[in-house]
Structure formats: structure tokens, C-alpha cells
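Handout, page 2. Input:
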Amino acid sequence: MKLVEELFTIHNYDSYIEAHLQEKSAFIQNMEDYARENHVPIMGSRAIDTFIGILSLQNPKRFLEIGSAIGYSSIRIAEAFPEIEITTIERNTGRYEKAIEYIEASDVSSQIQIIQADALELSIEENLEGPYDALFIDAAKGQYQRFFEKYSPLIKPGGVIYCDNMFMHGMVLQEDQELPRRKRTMIRNLRSFMAWIMPHEDYNATLLPVGDGLLIAIKKE
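Output:
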């Protein structure tokens, strides 16, 4: 893996990769433009394409997402997997309302259920029905371990938990004194989660340099 990273550092393959990506629909381009203009954090084009490629190896049928934002990843995944059922949770009212707007305007609205709630306060018993094949955590980075501990029981044995933004734009590599004060606790928690999950006896976990860092944790049978 280190050799691959070094090769990508020496040789800029961005233009080569971009040239082979599938052309985006006007609808998806509109979502990406909206996210960029309104500073909404969504997965980058290459990262979501790679994530969908990884998901195709698992081919999940029931998918749970923590952190809908404007519904971008849910819609992209639903488009790629016509049989998938997605439940996604979003706390922010403005983003939830925009996600509803985009989901209802998409061709995959019947595949996506969105819940407005704080995922750490949501009653699982009243709102969710497991098991799920996959869980995607892409919400408050400082709370990843709490999200994981709360929702992982809903994932069936052999299922997979994916966590995005594990590099947090390189901040996990910085010393605490180099970080903005308001980010320090979040980064400490993210590092702590990484140290907790990698040797976890119930999961086979690995970290991939996909996008801003994608953690994959396979629940042992």
C-alpha cells in the first residue's frame, strides 16, 4: 500500500483517472455544484465512485447511513444498486430539507428513507429495524466511536461498517499544538477511535487512502 501511495505522489494520475470516469448526469452535477457553493461536505466524485466499487463487492441489500447531508451519497448508491434499501439519518434541519428535495426529485426516491434526528439520541427500537448489511458513518467525526457502538449491533455478521473522513484533511497527522483549538478534541477522538477499532476482536478493520480516508470494518461471523 505504501508503494502505491508513493507512486501516486511521484506520478500525478488525476487527469488519467478523471478521463475514465463516467459522465455525470445534470442532476448529480447540480448536487455537487450546490454542495460546493454552500459548503456542504459530501464525498468527492472519485471517492464516491471508488466507494461504490467497493460496495459492489459486498452488494448490500439493506444499507444504513449516519449523516445524510443533502442526500448525495444515498442517491448515488441507490442509483448504482437498484435493489438496495437505504435508511439515512440527518440532524441538521436545512440539510435534511434539501435532502428531501433532492431525493423526491430523483429516480430512486422509493429506495431511500430519510429520518431527521440526532443519531446519538434516536431511539433504535422505535425507528429502525435491523439487521442491515452495511452501515456508513459520515457524521460528526469526534463521535465516530459512539456512533459505531450504538449502531453496530444492527449490522449482521459478515456485514460491513464504513467510516469516511478518517484522515480529516491530514489533521490526524498533526501535533495537537498545530491544530486549531476548536478541532483538537475532535481529532483526539478520531485518533482514539482508530486505535480502538483496528485491533478490535469482533471486526477485521483496514484503512484505505480513498478520498479523505475510508475505514472498512467487517463484522466477524
